[in-house]
Each structure stands twice: as C-alpha cells, then as structure tokens.
Amino acid sequence: MGESSDFPLTSLNITYKIPQSILAVIYTKDLDVLLIERADRPGFWQSVTGSRDSLSEKLEETAIREIFEETGITVVDTITDPAPSSRQVQKRYLTDWQIEHEFEIFSVWRHRFAPGVTTNTEHVFGLQVPTTFDVVLEPTEHLNAMWLPWREAAAKCFSWTNREAIEALPMHVITD
Q: Domain 10-172 belongs to what architecture?
C-alpha cells in the first residue's frame, strides 16, 4: 500500500491511528489460548491487537511488534534460549490466517481515529508457542493475562472477531 489513503494521519499536531489492525491469537498445540485483560476496560478480555504504526509497516511486522509490546514474546528467526521464560518463538510459528474483518469502531475508541473514520479492517494472525508461560504485560494497556482452553477463551472474549478467530483455531495448529 502506498502513502496515499482515504483517511488523514495527522491534523493540528494530532496523530491518528490507522484503521488497519492485527489480531494475533497466541496458542499452544494443545489449544490453550492466551488472553489479556484491557487496562482501559477491566473485564474486557482479548488476544493481542494493535494498529499499524505507519502505512509502510507490513502487517506481519505489526503483529510481531504488537506481540512483543503486549506480552514480551519475541518472534525470532533463530531461538537463542529455548527456555519458555525467554519468551522466544521461532518466526515460522507466526502465521497469517488470511482472515480479514471490517467492523465498526466502538464509539469509546473512535476519538483515536481521524474524524469521519468509523470502521477498522482487522487482519488475523496466529502464533503457536511450545507451552504456556508467564508473559510480561504493558501495564498501561493490560492488567492480567491467563491461558484458557480454546472454547473457554473464545467465550470470554468481548470481541466477535476475536471469538470467531479462536473458534477457527483447531484448523490452524502446526503439527510439525
């Protein structure tokens, strides 16, 4: 995508979010799913989400950046420390599920976007990790984290797109 768009990125020194985001479902081969609780909306549980930082940022780069920022998990080409506490996951376990949703931005978050922007396009990724482990949360964004079996995780999500992605999880498990 080029630098032109249908939405302004800045106005009067205000930087707006780009209405293109990722949803990254983090899960184990046994279908345990990581959920994180939003700091700005306690009780709202979700997978990792986040908007592109720039129009030149590739969606995979957005997913890698957001996963690290929100959980401390580093997606790397080569594992240098295999211990789960190192929070390193090989890049081949990050997959673009080729699922895209367009949805109306909740009014509570619409101020983050340029005037007139009411919809967001979300691209779904999955990150399969070897086992459950403690994650490092960004405290201004998330309060708590938990691993749940996939059906329970889907039921706990406030977002229909997140529920739908987790419900599709069994067909995305990497078995190598």
A: Alpha-Beta Complex (3.90)
